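In this section we walk through a basic example: taking a raw amino acid sequence and producing a predicted 3D structure, encoded as discrete structure tokens. The instruction is simple. Fold the sequence below.
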Amino acid sequence: MSFRLTPVTIISVTGAIGIISTIGYILLAIYQPWLGISFAPSNTEAGIIVVSSEGPTVNVPVETKIMEIRNSQLSMELQSLDLTIEPDGALHTYDIYDDFLERQGKIFSIINSNSFQLIDDGGNAYDVQPMKQRPLSSLPVAFWVPLFVGVTAWFISSAVYAFRSEDIAAKYLLISGASMLVSAPFSAVYATRELAMPMELFAFLSDGNFFGGSLFSASIVALLLYYPKRIGPGWVGPIVIAVFVAWFVAQQLGAFDSMTFARRFLVLLAVIAMFVLAIVHWLKTKHDPVARASLQWFLLSWMLGTSLFWFFILMPQMFGIDTSALQGYAFSLFLLVYGGLAFGITRYKLFALGQWWGNIVLWAFTVLMLVVLDLLFLLALQLSTELSISLALLISGVLWLPLRSFVWGRILGKHSTDQEAVFKQIVDIAHAPTNEIMNEKWCGLLRNMFDPLSIEIDEQNEVCNISNSGQKMHVPAAGNVNSYVLEFAGGGKKLFNSKDINTVEELLALLDYMVESKAAYARGVVEERHRIARDMHDNLGAQLLGALHNPDIDSKDSLIRETLTDLRDIINDNARTGQSFDEMLADLRAETTERLAVAGIELKWQIDSSELSEVTPQLLHAIRSIIREASSNIIKHAGATYAVIKITSRENTMKIFINDNGKGIEESSFDLGHGLENMKMRVTSLNGTMDISNQSSGVSLSAQFPIILAGASR
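The resulting token sequence is shown next.
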């Protein structure tokens, strides 16, 4: 028996990992010396500018240019390079990166002392006595955003995996969530340092951030090999992961001189691969609406979030533009990825997606506009990070959001009203009492939709088409309406086009569906009456007759109760001829699991059957009755904690095996009560056999009988 963790266990474990990681990242960030100062790069290579100061550095004036830092043992000239936020994008070679790390280590050894001095460009010295621990309130927003994104991505991916653990796409989503739990918070810790941190710690965090980002890219590429449709063999996904891991190991071993190339090139290839795989899925899901809807979640969320991050963060770094200031905020775009993929993999409201599509796109465009404005203020106008994001939010809130809501509300509102009116007219046409009235109403709808100068009955057409360079549109027959030809759309002011053809085809399909639904309802009423009469004649009469002649009172009462249950099933159509064998088993499994669970009994349900066409109601009744009665006996008499129900169908023979780990039954009781007589009667009526025996633990019941398909002679 394979071992599987329950969803509650998975969520509990992953939740604990997320909480412990969050606490660890916060402690790592605050257990650093606190200077109470923030810096900005100067206009020259040498020196850094004081932006704010408090606590230990409150005596250092804002806008002071600090040129040197020193204590009694060591002195270092400060450079703008020392404030590098994201080494991967700003430091182009590993030689520069190694020098940067060495400088970080030396600077940290100074600020980690009991006291040191900051020397400005005028030679003035400012004494600083740093605090050994950084206050929690001093951590900036740029720290909390990546931390929140990493932990949230982990929680979302683990929740999806908990309920879809057998889905290969969910497994790769979990890997991506784990990579984000490493990548984003690692970056948050070193990117929000005041000035420096230990060289070894900085290198570990930076390399971990790169490894997490690489693993994220690899896992998403691997995921797209199997989501929303499987387009690659099972071994390809692990190969993709292995390639990215090998690339990381190679750059760690010094295989590359360019740090920008080593840490961006493969990620760039992954983004391209994602676009290609998305196109492949789009083509392959043409005739699969469920997969297409799942893919739409991906296109809206992942493509937008990841692509924007790549476009505004990673791509500029390939051309030497430092976008480090935006990276902390840009991590929030990845929440789009996990939200969309989670909804897609769990198939949450797939077909309601079309109703939200426009709004989602507009909100996404709002985020894009916010990022563009922020980037403009930062790079073009050289504003501070705080001021640029504030202005971007202000412009978006005051101008764009109200305009977006007004325009989209007008468009969406008018569209919904028109669609509702057309739908009501189609329903009215389908329920017209005569064909003459139906044709009259259909012509009225066509006039309202296209305003033609003339509508005439046409020869029978099988497809909608346009003739005379768009002057005529031929509308084929549908339901009980005739075929028509429409001439000169828009009162003679426009030509018919392909959009009009699509509209007519949708109307025809809807009308056909309505007419067929009406006819199907009428047929269903008649068939339902025949079904109830047939089932009552075939099953209930025989069961009641057997109860009437049964001398055992308990057995008679049990059979009557069972007959009443079957009567409810017949009325509710639970055993209808059109119900598949698998549907019946699914309902029965849910019912049995619930009954046993209330009694504290664990159920192992096993099915090993070939695909069956429709079976007779007698067979469905028999299977349900046997399992129901056996379950009742286990609950009432067995004292069991565990039960196994196995159903197999092979070579036109159905076998049922039921076993529990209870106390068993006495030999003298095999022919007395416990519903055994009724179960044997069921099996015998189907020309089958049933055996009951005590095992080393509990009771074993086995029954087998021939499979009778619906429509077969009896």
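Looking at the output, two observations stand out. Residues 36-138 form a domain with the Pdz3 Domain fold (CATH 2.30.42). The first strand starts at residue 37 and ends at 41. In the next section we compare this with other chains.
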